[in-house]
């Protein structure tokens, strides 16, 4: 079907759809989805910039700060393996995140250390094994360290900076299903705003050629930035 447009109407909406009720409906969707996600659009835009610069042209967001550390007495019979250590810590400190081995420099995960024979003062000795697990919550991290057979667990709490917290919100780190579903609605609002914004383009903002040129320029720039780095 060929599309014809009114001289003063919407450029990307067929003439027969350009009725007051339809245009009002488009504007309401555009407005209310904008209000629904207004604050989160700002937050996710800011955190998106920080994440985009996490490796190239890096923007520092500050290191996590140790808030507290403690040796907590425990019955060794309750901590027979690393899984038991994770369950104990989650229950003891009301942690909702999944326990994972902490990341070392270089990004490698290491759940257990020690357990090897090493030379010390001229003799081969067995190094004690240590289990270490980290619970990454949205605003910080709790790390537990335990030597099998010991009667105490080392616990360390670290707090993220505000910018670090915003990045965790963007990634959904340490958050549950409810937050993930909520962000899905924010993403849906952004999609709705982009579609209704496209349909509401009028001659007040320029012709279709200008609109198509802006979209094409954006896509060409995106492809030019990605193409050299593809396999």
TrEMBL record:
Alphabetical list of InterPro entries matching this protein: PepSY-ass_TM, PepSY_TM-like_2
Membrane-spanning segments: 29-51, 177-201, 207-227
Biased composition annotated in UniProt, kind: Basic and acidic residues: 106-119
Keyword Membrane part of the UniProt annotation: yes
Residue span of region Disordered: 97-119
Alphabetically ordered keywords of this record: Membrane, Transmembrane, Transmembrane helix
PANTHER family linked to this entry: INNER MEMBRANE PROTEIN WITH PEPSY TM HELIX
UniProt protein name: Peptidase
Organism: Novosphingobium endophyticum
